[in-house]
From TrEMBL:
SUPFAM superfamilies: Glyoxalase/Bleomycin resistance protein/Dihydroxybiphenyl dioxygenase. Keywords: Metal-binding. Pfam families: Glyoxalase (PF00903). This is VOC family protein. Residues 6-113, 152-277 form the VOC domain. It comes from the Bacteria.
Amino acid sequence: MIKVRGAKYVVFGVSNPDDTREFMTDFGLVPVAWHDEATYLRGALPSPYVYIAEKSGDPSLRAFGMELESPADLVRAAEIEGASGIRELDRPGGGRVVDVFLPGGIRIELVHGIADFEPLPIQSALVINEGQRKARFNAPQRPPRVPAQVLRLGHVVLGVPDPIAAKDWAVQNLGMIVSDAMLVPGSKDEYIGFFMRCDRGSTPCDHHTLLITKSDVPSVHHVAFEVQDIDTVFMGHEWMMMRTHRPHWGVGRHVLGSQVFDYWWDPDGFRVEHYADGDLYDNTVPADIVQGTDDHLWAWGPEVPPAFFQKTRHI
């Protein structure tokens, strides 16, 4: 079985890459110079890109890139049923890739060997004076009103007609672990979604790198990017509002995964999320089974908008 380290990048077909680049720059990504027609954007951590925008008359999520632990995993990935052979990546940082398909037809690019770039200067997290534990003295808080600096791609949420089959495929082929399984409210055996994390043994991983949900057709619900701290989420919200982008939902805190979140609509109507302060689990934490109700969606924040439960684009 192969081992997946985590989310690496997403590839979107977009109607106007220039508009997407402007939006994602306000969102906190940084454009990367490259020689083809696609737009590449990176976060502050060393990965050379986390978001690729390719011009398309039919906007869609084209691929979700996930990083493998070793070259041997890449060889094993090519043996997955329906997988492509190993090919070279003509993108920043090079590397090699195997294409596989999640049940439902969504393409996952399993990659290894993409060379890191130098990290960008990272804004430090604010030092917080808690009620009974003080750490900041003789220094006021003055967070700047600037774009929320994105560090990395954290997770992707995909909809498929058969989430159980997709979950089983991810467990069997990618070595992933279920963190939380969501039931149809009131049901004991009808599942509507699975929060899935990578298995890196005793090394803690994001509560979910992949969330699989039920959808009549293959679709993407949102892609989520980690920022430094909660103030970054809030100040990023202020920046996006000032730039007159379309807010969707936030700022609030999720229950499953615990992230402080803020969702926005991009120019093609895809959801993108800033988040901070998410849960980390190692491989000893068993899966929890919960009812898929609003009580398990958010702990505080504005009321969830009805559009949050609607799919965005087919794949």
